[in-house]
Amino acid sequence: MKPAPFRYDAPATLDETLSLLAEAGEHGKLIAGGQSLVPMMNFRLARPGRLFDLNGVAELDFMRVEGARLRIGALTRHAAFHRPPCEGPTGALLAEVVRHVAHYPIRQRGTFAGSIAHADPASEWCLVAATLDAEIVARSRAGERVIAARDFFVASLATALRPDELVTEVRLPVLGARWRTGFCEFARRAGDFAIAMSAVALRLDAGIVREARVGVGGVEDRPSRQPAAEQALAGRPVSPAALAEAADAAAREVKPMTDLHADAAYRRHLVRTTTRRALERAAA
Amino acid sequence: MSAPSDKHAVALEVNGREYRIAVEPRRTLADALREDCGLTGTHLGCEHGVCGACTVLVDGAPVRACLMLAVQAHGRPIRTVEGLAGMDGALHPLQAAFHEAHGLQCGFCTPGFLMLAVGVLEREPDIGDAALREILSSNLCRCTGYQNIVAAVRAGAARMRRSTGHG
Ligand SMILES: Cc1cc2nc3c(=O)[nH]c(=O)nc-3n(C[C@H](O)[C@H](O)[C@H](O)COP(=O)(O)OP(=O)(O)OC[C@H]3O[C@@H](n4cnc5c(N)ncnc54)[C@H](O)[C@@H]3O)c2cc1C
Ligand code: FES
Ligand code: FES
């Protein structure tokens, strides 16, 4: 199918884009990579009256480390993560995870921030953002606010963003050398959205877990941290028993959805497995 | 202010030739290539990014032409399957390899696979087997069972390395 008609603007600056968004209200929509939006427009599930193209806004095309933060500008494509974008466990995790985000041609255009704004429950980047406590920087003509990932993802395809707001960047912590990260996804085919996936980060000190972050995605209507699993690990040595207990805790606590890909019981089963494997990879 | 159905003047630079066209913003790059430039080698299967039949190179990178708007491609170098063979009709090394290794049956998916593979091999001539298979999994083929496509791309990669003197 083909998209319904819309008016198109290609602003050159952030200020111009924010003015267009403010003036268009509910009718306006941003297009970044277009890799989620254009399919929805082709199906006419989305029929924006006006489309504002971010691709010419050069000031949003950046990625850099500043202090202990990796700042990912709105025009950073998925493909930018094919190589680790920073040293240490954060960079390694991103370069591992990107191989599960859609396919190579889609990664050439799709953006990290677009995934965050789109908020698909099975998005790998949304899971990484939730697990690492990302900060999402939202701008409108009224000003800037920084939204914590835990407050940003509201439900499936729903976020805390207002229609006049734009994500200018997403900030991730650059984890230090004591951290270990791991990721495991189950999908039917390479490049498909996850049916269940887990991302973990462990801060170790002489083999003892000092801090644990366990995130699960593809299972509920948004990515989540799993406090029970994190508590099962804190203060303990990274033994197979501790990892298995944490995986059990995550599987017990999640409230999995049923959809045409998998039912809730199967997803719960998968959460146990993906969490255990992600932990094993981190501990290895 | 413009109306949604107003046409935008777009200059597409396809296979080294400029096409000046006027399109509504909702015109996808794939449709513009086929309908406005007459380049029907780029195929459309799903129109939502899944099958890869519409893969073309934009700025050297393989992209889904059904998920890009023609207005977004203004002034940027585009390559399609029509640009692969030489002026004298001599097949591109990858096309020759597809022919010889039976990398196609009905041929519907072939332009997409060729552009995907050309785009990747020009950037990474020495790409490993596992990485190559992972990338080829981007596109769908309902005929070949993929084995011959993988074999054809591998054979084509060796020919491309020879023809560009990479060893
Ligand atoms: C076949 C296929 C398979 C895929 N598989 C996966 C997968 O396995 N995992 C995965 O995570 N994704 C997958 N995707 C989606 C892909 O990763 C998209 O690139 C991503 O979801 C959205 O990024 P985008 O830049 O393309 O956004 P767009 O499609 O341009 O926009 C998506 C939405 O976000 C809004 N938006 C975009 N940028 C901003 C911004 N800076 N501020 C505010 N709002 C913004 C848009 O208005 C729109 O509502 C797949 C897509 C396809 C076609
Ligand atoms: S037609 Fe573009 S991916 Fe299928
Ligand atoms: S050869 Fe028929 S779809 Fe691939």
What does this structure look like?
The complex is a heterodimer of chains A (284) and B (167). The termini of chain A are far apart. Chain A is globular. Chain A has helices at 14-24, 37-42, 88-97, 104-109, 112-118, 124-131, 149-152, 227-233, 240-253, 264-283; strands at residues 7-9, 28-31, 50-53, 63-66, 69-73, 135-140, 143-148, 153-155, 158-159, 166-173, 179-186, 196-205, 208-217, 224-225. Chain A contains 10 helices and 14 strands. Chain A folds into 3 domains: 7-52, 2-Layer Sandwich (Uridine Diphospho-n-acetylenolpyruvylglucosamine Reductase, domain 2); 59-172, Uridine Diphospho-n-acetylenolpyruvylglucosamine Reductase, domain 3; 179-283, Enolase-like, domain 1. Chain A is an alpha+beta fold. Chain B contains 5 helices and 5 strands, in the order ββαβββαααα. In chain B, strands 2-1-5-3-4 form a 5-stranded mixed beta sheet, sandwiched between helices. In chain B, β3 and β4 form a beta hairpin. Chain B is globular and about 50 Å long. Classes of the chains: A alpha+beta (284), B alpha+beta (167). At the A-B interface, α2 and α4 of A face β4 and α3 of B. Bound molecules: flavin-adenine dinucleotide and FE2/S2 (inorganic) cluster (2 copies). Flavin-adenine dinucleotide is lined by residues 29-37, 39, 74, 101-102, 106, 110-111, 113-115, 117-118, 120, 123-125, 161, 166-167, 191-193 of chain A.
Question: How are the SSEs placed, and which strands pair?
Answer:
The complex is a heterodimer of chains A (284) and B (167).
Chain A: E1 7-9, H1 14-24, E2 28-31, H2 37-42, E3 50-53, E4 63-66, E5 69-73, H3 88-97, H4 104-109, H5 112-118, H6 124-131, E6 135-140, E7 143-148, H7 149-152, E8 153-155, E9 158-159, E10 166-173, E11 179-186, E12 196-205, E13 208-217, E14 224-225, H8 227-233, H9 240-253, H10 264-283
Parallel strand pairs in A: 1-3, 2-3
Antiparallel strand pairs in A: 4-5, 5-10, 6-7, 6-10, 8-9, 11-12, 12-13, 13-14
Helix pairs in contact in A: 8-9, 9-10
Chain B: E1 8-14, E2 17-23, H1 29-36, E3 55-58, E4 61-64, E5 77-79, H2 93-100, H3 110-123, H4 129-136, H5 147-163
Parallel strand pairs in B: 1-5
Antiparallel strand pairs in B: 1-2, 3-4, 3-5
Helix pairs in contact in B: 2-5, 3-5
The structure holds flavin-adenine dinucleotide (FAD) and FE2/S2 (inorganic) cluster (FES) (2 copies).
Residues 29-37, 39, 74, 101-102, 106, 110-111, 113-115, 117-118, 120, 123-125, 161, 166-167, 191-193 of chain A line the site of flavin-adenine dinucleotide.
